[in-house]
Amino acid sequence: MRRTAFFVSDGTAITAETFGHSLLTQFACVDFRQIRLPFVDTHEKARDAVSLINRAAEADSNRPLVFSTIVDGEIGKELFACNGHVFDMFSTFMEPLEKILGVERSPRVGQAHGMGNAHAYEDRMEATNYALTHDDGISKKLDQADVILIGVSRSGKTPTCLYMALHYGVKAANYPLTEEDLEQPRLPVFLRNHRHKLFGLTIDAERLAQIREHRRPGSRYASIKQCRYEVEAAESMLRIEKVPSLSTTDSSVEELASRILLELGLQREVF
Amino acid sequence: MRRTAFFVSDGTAITAETFGHSLLTQFACVDFRQIRLPFVDTHEKARDAVSLINRAAEADSNRPLVFSTIVDGEIGKELFACNGHVFDMFSTFMEPLEKILGVERSPRVGQAHGMGNAHAYEDRMEATNYALTHDDGISKKLDQADVILIGVSRSGKTPTCLYMALHYGVKAANYPLTEEDLEQPRLPVFLRNHRHKLFGLTIDAERLAQIREHRRPGSRYASIKQCRYEVEAAESMLRIEKVPSLSTTDSSVEELASRILLELGLQREVF
Questions:
Q1: Count of C-beta atoms within a 10 Å radius of residue A244
Q2: Across the interface, which of A25, A33, A111 has its CB nearest the CB of B112?
Q3: Between A211 and B110, where is the model more confident?
Q4: Is residue B178 in some structural domain?
């Protein structure tokens, strides 16, 4: 079964996409074509969106699903005229929320993913810069780090650091455990002072070999023997040194970031 | 007015946070303390969450707002027993969605921000690696790029590229327009073949000077005179070469990424 789903917003449509996509993941048997329509912030653009939705309805012989987070009431109304099933997050929850809070909302478009709190936004940008300049062991000056990910080369440290920095303003450094480091079962000396900030990432040796093979085909670095040796040595070090760790084999960067922030107690309020 | 808001989920809580935070941005007059409770996936953790919420209710003398995306019905019920106002995205929209689709949902925890489609996830990781190895003009081999951001140093190119890569699997390179490039009003030669992939980022000279001052205090590089010269020359080049552009002065990376993908027609389906 094939259906089209639209994520429509007068802002970036990131909320609409997150909201709609989450619901759709619960219907594994349906093949959804998912289309994002951001910045629908004029009546003209709303009419364009309605045309698009109506054309999809005809092409599919099935009314599309429309997940909307349009803030502007008048533009929102325009959308409701489309030949689709509209799920509107704002109109559904706003009224009860106003009652509970005892204040009326002050409708503001594009707040959820705008600059918001300028200070928090700058923290995110600074953290991203930090992650880039403290990636892959480039810098051993780790006093400013909120978290330091350690693991063998290609275990997924970099994207996880970037995600934590970009989204949560967390200063995340990472250090690759080298063959030399792995010759002894203890942490490299310069990391011992930062023990409380350390988090290990590990990975199945088979998956690691695949990833490395893609990078350096036929190399010793990518051989299953080498990958097994490194992963075993790294896991043993993490165990002996009691560094908390997670496997990246079946976890997304979003899952890893959420778990690491939870375990290290780095639950920043970043908005 | 101060209120506590909880974002609760049996997964990463990214959807719950996005959903709740979006609604809360519409109440600028209220000071919300926002707390994320991810991975509430057992009855025990649900009871812990309820305790936390109830303690906040007592401390605030006000029932907290609770935005939930718990998928598991039984665990969800447990949460509803808390002394907070629970807004449940799944239970609100799931029933109408099931009726429309004519199929029952197959409840699956942690799908929204899990690995999902493994192929799409690998694309995101590969694109992130691409962004890192094609950052700041490191590589002039840009055939594989989906988009190439150009602009003066510190105009916001890197975080925007990383966001597009990490979220949308878009291969985003960036190239800093150097003083030498800016001496002539035309695009650097090696960029001319990639004209259709180019997107300019610009910024107010005053803001740029601030950012550069933070990086290299007292330098010619950070002087307002230099910043004005570079920004004017870059904007003139973008205009003459008809490269679409955006200002990063008041836009977040989320807004920039959404607009760039929309304007270049890079509306990938990444799920």
A1: 12
A2: A25
A3: A211
A4: yes
